[in-house]
Amino acid sequence: MSAAIERRRERSNFNGQAITVSYEHWEGFCNIDADNGTISGLIPDTMDQIAMMLNMTINYEIFSPRYIFGAAFDNGTSVGGIGNVASGKHEASVAGFSVSYQRSKAVDFTTPVEREVFGVIVKTPTANDISISNYTNEYRPSAWLSVLIAFLVWWIALFLMMRFGDNETSGNAIYLSTVVTLRAVISKVIAIGNCGFSM
Fold first, then answer.
1. Is residue 185 packed enough to be buried (19+ CB in 10 Å), middle (13-18) or exposed (0-12)?
2. Quick one: pLDDT at residue 19?
3. Taking CA atoms, which of 41, 125, 130, 159 is between 20 and 30 Å from 13?
């Protein structure tokens, strides 16, 4: 047997040393018997195999307080299951931890044993679903009334400026102010439509 293999074996032998592992209920992975508090599932089975390989024993302690998985803070402190490991109270902790950047600064995570994928589902649109109501219903009637009043005020302001401001446009004040306002309204409607169809 080579010296490298022998050294690896020595590093992997805890010589019967006991470590403390905290745990919390994790359905299917770490189940807690409500009657006697014993645990079963994939995680304790895996930990037992690791303990046998490394010649060590594992003492399990349930989370205290319960269900506080833990967090790590910018000031270096941490609480819960994360805090117990970071402080050295427990050598490891097994539960349904979500891996986050803040937590990873306080403790090391193993390779994940479960991944959860979240998605958003929507109804498949049909040709009949593309209508103006898909855009107008996004806002309450009071919002559309406010927009209408805003354009009406804008039209009146333009009319007054053209009627009394410049002699060249005073004769066509109603026509010009209406055209400018309608062009503004149409451009906004087209912009909203383009945004809606590109989403």
1. middle
2. 87
3. 41
In this structure, which amino acid lies at residue 195?
A: C
Residue 190: the pLDDT is 58
Does CATH place domain 3-104 in 3.40.190.10?
A: yes
pLDDT at residue 140, rounded to an integer:
78
Q: What is the mean pLDDT of each run of 10 residues along the chain (199 residues)?
A: 58 80 82 80 86 87 75 80 86 84 86 77 66 68 81 78 63 67 68 46
Query: For residue 58, which phi and psi values (nearest 5 degrees)?
Result: -120, 125
The set of residues, in sequence order, having a beta carbon less than 8 Å from that of 178 and lying 6+ positions away, is 155
Query: What interhelical angle do 141-164 and 173-198 show, nearest 10?
Result: 150
Tokens of 35: 């009657």
44, 28 Cβ separation under 8 angstroms: no
Read off the tokens for 175.
């026509």
pLDDT at 113: 75
Whether 170 contacts 163, CB under 8 Å = yes
> Which 3 state secondary structure label does DSSP give 78?
strand
CA distance 56 to 144: 71
- The Cα 47–Cα 152 span in angstroms is 73
Q: Domains of the chain: which residue ranges?
A: 3-104, 127-198
Entry pTM: 0.48
